[in-house]
Amino acid sequence: MTNDHPQSPPRPGSEPPAPPRTGSEPSTLTGSPFESDTFTSATFVTVGRGSYLALAAVWLLSRAGMLLLLSRDDLGIGGVAREVALYRHWYGQFAEGTFPPGDVTWQYPPGAGLVIMSPSVLPWLTYFQAFVALTLLADAVVTAALARADSARLTHGAWIWACGLPLLLHLPLARYDVQTTALAVLALLALGARSPAAHRLGGALAGIGAMVKVWPALALIGTPRGRTTREAWTAAAVTALALLATLALFFSESLGFLRQQGDRGIQIESLGGTALALARASGAWSGGVEFRYGAFEYVGPYVSSLGHLALLLTVAAFGWLLLWRVRAHRWTPATPLDAAFAAVLLFTVTSRVISPQYMIWLIGLAAVCLTSRRTVMRPVALLLLPAAALSSLAYPVLYLDVVAGTPTGLAVMVLRNALLLAAALLAARRLWTSTVTPPAERAD
């Protein structure tokens, strides 16, 4: 988080002001969104009050377009809003005091129930209307928080979110991942402050997020060693345990999701699924596609082995992150943001499941990274934009092609997953070289 206004004192937790330029230094574009060794001549938005108005206008227009698409819900395979109907079904079970018993489609931590029950705070609306309204509210909060994080030099962080989310068409409005991403984004922004209370707040938000959809716990992977880590991690653990105990007290079957999650196979949009699709197209694999656990998965020879390999790669990714944390010796204000982004990317590409809504998480984390000029993730964030657009082609636009494994569907998935894999590897490399590799050995 920065405050570069020459007449304003820096906010607590902000980066120190950049030293004045000398006459021998090359000039750069003021407020460039890609002020880095890779991007030095791009411009994104004029700095000043007009930027806030432009951001608000783009947000309103793009979200109106997303609402229009959702109201029609006939793009491609259609039926994007059916997920909200499933949420409504689960809401009825929560009202009876139980998490969905024996429901193979319920694969979420118990905190997700709070999000699914949240439309009840707007009783004058239908469940669907209330859910979409609260999703838009969470979206607006993320946009405002990202803009405020760089209030004196509004640049690409808020814009990546405002413009990147509509690349997923209307899907974000019919999933609860926007709310989950809001918890992670707010947690990371709170961790950037110097106040111990802010660190505890960031940890608490990450703990709640972990109980909603697990992955926000990774927001804490890059907290600076020492007091900040102790404060944030303790707050996260206490909050998560308190929330779990409370839900277990009032609802039965609170941990039933573990059975369903453990039985998942290889979803067709995952990297493993793309490998099987290529093998099937070449005639080297004889398996097929089946609708299981609420998604299309591959079934047939070697699927179980590939699933175990995916789990092994996830464990290896976690081990690499632990090694990075032990070896890292240079921390900047952007390091916690960059580490969270890299961690979620690594866990995404090694997962047996890459649902299209996972892109919401990645766009949000990319946006929060880009609120800091010290981030090393700018080129990684750029890779996510075409990956998000391709995700929309995969679902819902060309989903029948993806399921059938036609050349068009296969090409879309190969390109999308290649971009995600490249983004994950590049993020890991840039995180390592910026914090571990000695400066004299760095190639970039």
UniProtKB/TrEMBL annotation:
TM ranges: 124-146, 158-178, 198-221, 233-251, 306-324, 380-398, 410-428
Region (Disordered): 1-35
Subcellular location(s) of the protein: Cell membrane
Record flagged with keyword Phosphoprotein: no
Record membrane topology: Multi-pass membrane protein
InterPro entries in the record: GT87 (IPR018584)
Keywords: Cell membrane, Membrane, Transferase, Transmembrane, Transmembrane helix
Keyword Translocase among record annotations: no
Comp. bias (Pro residues): 7-20
Ranges of biased composition (kind: Polar residues): 24-35
Top-rank taxon, per record: Bacteria
Main location: membrane
Family per similarity comment: Belongs to the glycosyltransferase 87 family.
Descriptive protein name: Glycosyltransferase 87 family protein
Organism from which the protein derives: Streptomyces wedmorensis
